Amino acid sequence: MRVLVVEDEPKMAGLLRRGLAEEGYVVDVAGQGVDGLDAAVSQVYDVVILDVMLPGLSGFEVCRRLRRGRVWVPVLMLTARDGLRDRITGLDGGADDYLTKPFHVEELFARLRALTRRGPVPRPNELAVGDLRADPAGRRCWRGETEIVLTAKEYALLETFLRNPGAVLTRDVLLEHCWDFAYESRSNVVDVHVRALREKIDRGFGMQSLETVRGVGYRLRADGGMPAGAEPR
């Protein structure tokens, strides 16, 4: 098994190298984010152990770039942080597992065994309908080559539409997928956010793709939309 350790603390990197080597792993070590990214892209590894706090590129950004580049090697993130938000950030960025420092080396080995048994799992790099695209890992979206800045709720709505192209989604369905239980279905919160989303993904580009189905809900055209004012075919 070949492992890449991306860790900037020399003492920790040395401990990991020695411990993994004693377990029979072949170990490469990178001390900076950009070096770890280059190694993971250019070499084939069974697993990457990636520290979060790295000089240059953070571990979060290294992982996001790997996934955007369709590199699906299993990633175990290490960090001295133990906040929930950091764990969510790492996992949403494409990490497969998360281990907080300090940790017992036996737990590290057990997690590595689990990850290597699983192996790389191909995952979609993006959702796309026509020239409208979204990156689920990075929570970013584009119309053509132009990136669109969305709020968290606008992005949640867009991702739901992109996963269901051509389907009419009721307000209740959108509430269930994009809001918590504090909102009531009679609220107009869905309509307000859909209008804001439409302004950004359609009207700003002279397109019409997000349609209102009167009395029912909304639909993202399966063909990605057409120029505003054009007659439907």
Automatic annotation (TrEMBL):
Protein name: Transcriptional regulatory protein TcrA
Organism, scientific name: Amycolatopsis taiwanensis
Keyword Metal-binding annotated: no
InterPro entries in the record: CheY-like_superfamily (IPR011006), OmpR/PhoB-type_DNA-bd (IPR001867), Sig_transdc_resp-reg_receiver (IPR001789), WalR-like (IPR039420), WH-like_DNA-bd_sf (IPR036388)
Annotated ranges, domain OmpR/PhoB-type: 124-222
Keywords of the record: DNA-binding, Phosphoprotein, Transcription, Transcription regulation, Two-component regulatory system
GO molecular function: phosphorelay response regulator activity; transcription cis-regulatory region binding
One family name in Pfam for this protein: Trans_reg_C
Listed SUPFAM superfamilies: CheY-like
